[in-house]
Amino acid sequence: MRYIFKFPDIGEGLDEGTIVEWHVEKGQAVKMGDSLVTMETDKVVTAIPSPKDGTIAAIFGKPGETINVGAALVEIDIDGDSKDDSQPVEEEGAGVVGTLEVAGSGVVLSASKEGVSSESSEKRNSKKKALATPVARAIAKDYGIDINLLKGTGPGGRVTKDDIVNYSKEGGSVQNDKVMLPSYKEQENSVEIEPLSQIRKTIAKNMLQSKHNAAHMTVFEEVEISILDSIRKKYKELYSKEDIKLTYLAFIIKAVALSLKKFKTLNSQMDWDNGTMIYKKYYNIGIAIDTQKGLVVPVIKNADKISIKEIASEISVLSEKAHEGKLTLDDMKDGTFSVTSYGSIGGLFAVPVINYPQAGILGVGRISRKPVIGENGELVAGLVLPLSLSVDHRIADGGETARFLNSIMSYLKDPIALIME
What we know:
The chain has helices spanning 134-142, 161-169, 198-213, 226-240, 248-262, 308-323, 329-332, 398-413, 417-420; strands at residues 2-6, 16-22, 29-30, 35-40, 45-49, 54-59, 66-68, 72-77, 88-90, 98-101, 108-112, 115-119, 216-224, 268-271, 276-279, 285-291, 294-296, 299-300, 337-341, 360-364, 368-373, 379-392. By secondary structure, it is of the alpha+beta class. The strands form 5 sheets. Strands 13, 16, 17, 18, 19, 20, 21 and 22 form an 8-stranded mixed β-sheet that branches. The N and C termini lie far apart (65 Å). The relative contact order is 0.11. Residues 82-86, 91-127 and 173-181 have low confidence and may be disordered.
């Protein structure tokens, strides 16, 4: 008997994922738990395992194609009958093997040979989204066709270009007898078209959500860090023997965590619907990491309780995982405040966009040598670090924002204080 294994919902209202790489092919035997395909979702790149023992009878989709939750991924022959006329059977609730706790949603998915069950899951959007290639979606959009109304004739029910042409001829929303390719297709040599990645879609969605829901206010400052620089240089070589890269960011994260303990408003979020403020008593600092695929924000947990050495080690581990596409849901969840360091690439000041629903984000600019006034009033060469602090002005007032930033600067001016409290 064959059955259709569908792309399961692995949490947080996931609607779709992009195929990164297939690990199986038609006719290949698989065991329960073997990786079938690597998918890129809104949050992470993750392998989807087989829920059953059997033989792959068919696979649906190519690398780069977007698959909706609930759409067919593979057909598995579970009794060894690989005849072409085998009738595929859909098993409701088939999903991943084992148990997966979903970040932030309170949903627990569990799977076994009997299928998948879920607890406390939110109801999914009842409108079914069509399965289609990026080209088909682009053609439908350019000519005003709701692609979700079409019945696809491609593999796994995918909507193809021909489906759109036939739909228009049968009296669909396009009046022309013939659907032409979008104008950019006529100019292939002058443009390059790529489908949006899941990470880029998520970045765009989160940026708009933040701008629409938070009242951004940004404060700019500079702090002289010559003492911090000398301490970092002293321990940098020592830490390198343990494969730990000691950066300024490790000190900044520690300074932010300790300052958040003094200013609880900056470690909170507003629950507008229930008319409450949520003040968090844990200090998890998200760090923005620039990767080839886009910006990701893994989280350093309990930054107030661990040493600068441990923070530096965590930065190295998370950065490596980010660039290799191996971040997990656990690496990304439960951040309470964020730090973005663009100075190593270029830029003194910026207006960082808050990682909503957090209350603030600290931007770190390029360090430079500047003349400063010394302790005795003399002009000396100083090492100056520019800072840009964006806050949700609904939550944090100007005075509290300035005092919070002053606290961070105080720790960076006198880094010994970071280990004295």
